[in-house]
Amino acid sequence: MPNPMKDAWRAGRAVVNGWISIPSAFGAELMAKAGFDALTVDMQHGIQDYASAVACMQAIAAHPVVPVVRVPWNEPGIIGKVLDAGAMGVICPMVNSAAEARALVDACRYPPLGQRSFGPIRAAIYGQAGSYFATANEDVAVIAMIETKQALDNLESILDVPGIDGVYIGPGDLGLSMGLQPMLDRKEPEVLAAYDRVLEQANKRGIIAGIHNATPEYALTMVQRGFRFVTVYNDAATVATGAIRDVAVMRKG
Amino acid sequence: MPNPMKDAWRAGRAVVNGWISIPSAFGAELMAKAGFDALTVDMQHGIQDYASAVACMQAIAAHPVVPVVRVPWNEPGIIGKVLDAGAMGVICPMVNSAAEARALVDACRYPPLGQRSFGPIRAAIYGQAGSYFATANEDVAVIAMIETKQALDNLESILDVPGIDGVYIGPGDLGLSMGLQPMLDRKEPEVLAAYDRVLEQANKRGIIAGIHNATPEYALTMVQRGFRFVTVYNDAATVATGAIRDVAVMRKG
Amino acid sequence: MPNPMKDAWRAGRAVVNGWISIPSAFGAELMAKAGFDALTVDMQHGIQDYASAVACMQAIAAHPVVPVVRVPWNEPGIIGKVLDAGAMGVICPMVNSAAEARALVDACRYPPLGQRSFGPIRAAIYGQAGSYFATANEDVAVIAMIETKQALDNLESILDVPGIDGVYIGPGDLGLSMGLQPMLDRKEPEVLAAYDRVLEQANKRGIIAGIHNATPEYALTMVQRGFRFVTVYNDAATVATGAIRDVAVMRKG
Amino acid sequence: MPNPMKDAWRAGRAVVNGWISIPSAFGAELMAKAGFDALTVDMQHGIQDYASAVACMQAIAAHPVVPVVRVPWNEPGIIGKVLDAGAMGVICPMVNSAAEARALVDACRYPPLGQRSFGPIRAAIYGQAGSYFATANEDVAVIAMIETKQALDNLESILDVPGIDGVYIGPGDLGLSMGLQPMLDRKEPEVLAAYDRVLEQANKRGIIAGIHNATPEYALTMVQRGFRFVTVYNDAATVATGAIRDVAVMRKG
Amino acid sequence: MPNPMKDAWRAGRAVVNGWISIPSAFGAELMAKAGFDALTVDMQHGIQDYASAVACMQAIAAHPVVPVVRVPWNEPGIIGKVLDAGAMGVICPMVNSAAEARALVDACRYPPLGQRSFGPIRAAIYGQAGSYFATANEDVAVIAMIETKQALDNLESILDVPGIDGVYIGPGDLGLSMGLQPMLDRKEPEVLAAYDRVLEQANKRGIIAGIHNATPEYALTMVQRGFRFVTVYNDAATVATGAIRDVAVMRKG
Amino acid sequence: MPNPMKDAWRAGRAVVNGWISIPSAFGAELMAKAGFDALTVDMQHGIQDYASAVACMQAIAAHPVVPVVRVPWNEPGIIGKVLDAGAMGVICPMVNSAAEARALVDACRYPPLGQRSFGPIRAAIYGQAGSYFATANEDVAVIAMIETKQALDNLESILDVPGIDGVYIGPGDLGLSMGLQPMLDRKEPEVLAAYDRVLEQANKRGIIAGIHNATPEYALTMVQRGFRFVTVYNDAATVATGAIRDVAVMRKG
Question: Domain E4-252 class?
Fold first, then answer.
């Protein structure tokens, strides 16, 4: 079980990612059939915990989509758990320094690259236990969120930490940290300049960059800008806006 | 706690209903905020059981929306349970005869109108236990699905059963039963004629008629036709079609 | 694993029963330590389903208390499931005729006494599978609720059905059926006369009678009257009234 | 999504089935990887309810194994729910007469063959909604349990009901009904004679016969006898006997 | 959605708080109706996790009660999660130094006051996303537990950390730390002197002080002493003591 | 409620331990009946979270088996929670230094030995709250995993930390850390030499040593070597290998 997301990156293709905030394996299945390259269970801001994240990963395993988890925080306990449960990618919020990046790699990589503990109880179901170990350090995508001014200040040293595969921009928090309102699909020149700097430094090191978006239309512009992991869909937002729209049609009618 | 859905019907207004198929209280909350008059937890075809139905009703109770449950079948055990848990309306599938309509009323109404057992454990939280009993037979909406040729054949006798507040057309099953494909938002003249007959007979007896729809646009035409309970939104369909649409935008881009 | 509840009845002692309406194994444990003879998971009016009932029975198994389940209705599927999951007693609502009593016995007793299907998956954990079968028909308590005028009319024929161990009076529904308000701890002479008739006919046949009460004080009078299975505690009521009382102390203070 | 189990039957091959009694999607995944042709979630005697059955079916969907559910009883509500949730086979306990077989078919087949209500919410994820409907009546396996003397007496009329694909022998209950102990892997001549009669009558009508076994060794003899759906593994028994064995090794050592 | 708890404090009123230890949304609803000003889900010592905490907060949202969570520990991952899920107050155990108080504020406040990550997925349901952000730093109550001698030693520096709204005394742990038995409703002079010192220093800075109590009678004395957040009720204790009392009545009778 | 595991150690007997990876209370019950001295819920690599760990501990409480939890990481929040929920032993992964051992003891022991917060909500159900406190520091087994070269380097200082009752070897991670493949039941001389060194240093201090094994046969050799806590059974492995074996028998047949 190689990681198709990494194949895409090696081929220069952008990975289209969906976002699972609703803690329902059935909702996850509906999304998995839609053709995303990857689906991310959001354990940070989503209404998800470990049990629901596992259920979502089980439910999407029947479909050709890479299971990714955004962990709630840079804590080795939960990072190890989601990897053992089969996540092929980990997105970690608030990686603001090289030390934090190093801690993230330690939690995600087996020795000698890191200090992940061995026991891929569900992850190894889809391969042989031996083969999982043989390739996990290569296959698992480790993605650090760059979402503060501090992270931008430390960008190069963060990116220099061996074992980081990608960075992921959180436009809401990054804006907040820059004294702006929290929002997605941003257009402020200073923000876009920061994006370009992240892309440039990441590309230079063979690291991909990703970004969280509110709409596929904006996400397309980000792919053109150079991002290779773009989130374009959020189940909770879709449920809410669809409901609001349908009610509005009725109230007008 | 009178039932605002019944107030709407008394005032001649149509009730706009959403459909909860995903077993998530959080998803239900998102819908509850959108402005529906009612939300129905679908325990028949939805991925819902009693526990998830209760959780959904708890989650929407903070919003001015009437909790309705479509039960899996015309069985008194589960009907009593959802009413005790606070459903202010019950939609029952496949009511094909006066005897089945009578069984439905028996399960939903306290004596002497029916044989519902007393114990409104959660329903009474929102009122006094005594006041719930005093008005439950009046407030609870009992809605029988008319969705087979047999039901159409027995329509008058079904509608004559005291205690039925409404009928609800299931266009998929009704079509199937008429030898057509199962689908919603139908336009076949013989189907529309059946709808009109249901409306006519129901109106004659002060019973409202409702219908399951795929789109609010079609639902508006049904309101004009005379339906007073129209489902216009389904969370599962919304999650799926939104995802397919967003992926398509990306693949084209 | 003989059934201590039946031992008590054979010895002429009354069984003190608690009522589990809150679907929490932890809450059930708290009750199990209090010294009840039996605890009943209420799947009819309680916020309980099969999964929560199993969890409650697992949680109380460490304590010397007999696990009983009130099933939602006289349906063989759920009756078999709770027995297989370890219930040593079944209380069935709304047994209004000999035919319904016979159906209840069929669901609870192995052939040749009834038609229960063999597979005591959890029940047999606490004995040997072979020994469970050998004594289950003797050990399981089958208790029919007498809670309508119709049941009173059919009382003798219901009690004559072989395999019924006990009857249980639901004062709320019985009152409703007699044209009274639904309430517990009743004092109307015609109701008490009905209780006495149930006691007399049951005793005559070696069947015990039980009753649902709101307070232990009233329950004691029922024990004196002859009842041998008395419910005296309800977790939901206790949580609610305790909270109301404590808030009142504060508001006065 | 044709049903590989039916393909096997058409080709004369026996289907090797595993039995899921532990309500854990993770346990189900472990089994799904072992190479069974089918896995059956046992909602009758297993510690399973609808929610856990759905979770198990979601978890095994990534593997080439046919999802089957044994329902708790011959009740249309739960039968429709498990089919809508994706079961490709239904095993129904205690089908003792042609009328009960007819009710089972009604619950499992769309009109005009039966009266199943349309709404394959999860089942259709793995195909197009339209294509599911087109082939469901052909693809879904409807399997009636023959496990009482009464069923043997009515065998021919049960098998003559159109829409039954298979019968499944429950050796425990069948033995009980014949006045024997409940057990599996039976060797009594009168029981084996009954098996042969079932096989003969089923084969004559193009219906397959299946049987519940405790060991694969015995199951092989049943395949040779003519059974084409053989259960050979039970997760709960495996957990228990494995634990007992390992503890015994330690206590001896 | 301003925070009524903060309004009370501004008006000098004491907030009456209940404690949810049983992981049941239904139990929480029963409490919510009793008239508490606030209800706290105890994720530290209660049998609560994130999923049950969310369910409890959903269930009480229909009632005018402020949702508070005591987190298991001073860890940013879980603090962010409960705030995003709608907690309007956070009680954090074992804040023993200014550095720990600063970490707590960082986890609870958006920049520039702290480093909370933006994504109020459920919290924003009850307002507009924009309006939640605008007022969250003002509305969310951040409450540090003072429950060790070390915390008393560092009291002034802890209280000087900007962004702390309140302190909460844990009498059990505080006693333990002072070499006494762990208990509530304490009367030792040295303990009461410590309480008074906390009150004095907190008041001086416009910070409220709260305390955990076993009885409303004792809590009233604490209100008179100056505490403005008093816990007076615990669901688990209520279930247990009520059961013990009712059983005792029966055993005596 | 003294801890029988500690009694065994005082008597020089080895404790036979089973491993619960499948998040099912029912599976745990099956294991509990098999005669293990202890059962460990694996929250690190098992598919377990806090809620499932509590359910497993509730389910095994009816059997004479000591409940142990392997926590996901050396974090005080979760350690306190599992102890409050009734764990009588804690196994903590990756204790690599005296400081980490000290943190573990702080999380597990009440003052003055450590800094555990008082609130044994479920733990105290099985004794009196007062008696739990009186003996918890003595009864709870605190077990540090030695599973890296770094831990071996720091072995003596780790073992010198007051309050550590035992060490537990993780052969997979230890091997990894030594540049070997991750596996159990190891035979490499350098690994066995490390085991002996751990045993010698632990014994010298009255600390027991334990080890994770794949088979009881190997575990017996470890008991002879001096280990006094040996894991011999894993539910997930048992389910998987049993299924593979039974399918293989069928495919050969």
Answer: alpha beta
